[in-house]
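Researcher: Checking consistency across runs. Here is Putative membrane protein again:
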Amino acid sequence: MIETLTTGAGYWDPIVFLIAGLIISIIVLLIYRAGAGNYTSEMAGKPYLSGNPEISKEDSHVSGENLYWGFVEGLKEFYHVMEKMHTGIINDYILWYVGALATLLLIFIGV
């Protein structure tokens, strides 16, 4: 007992569904058969790089320095000043922190 189910949004017919599935399966099979004939299971684990050979992990590594190069180059003058201020002594950092906090308090209090 196969019949069409009609709803307010459309209809459901299992015969149409099976025919559509069969047609889609045939199209998928044709696309699969048209694929590369020289494909082997050894190629399965390799990344696809648009047909280019895979380079070593060290050569393809992108470091943080590469990612932020433009940002650092654009603010080069600022970083030179900051590097001179960077002493590595915690007392200097606390002094800068207290000074910045005092400045902000003076600004917000309005003195």
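Researcher: Does this match what you'd expect to see?
Model: One thing to look at in this run: Helices lie at 14-33, 57-60, 64-67, 69-74, 76-85, 90-109.
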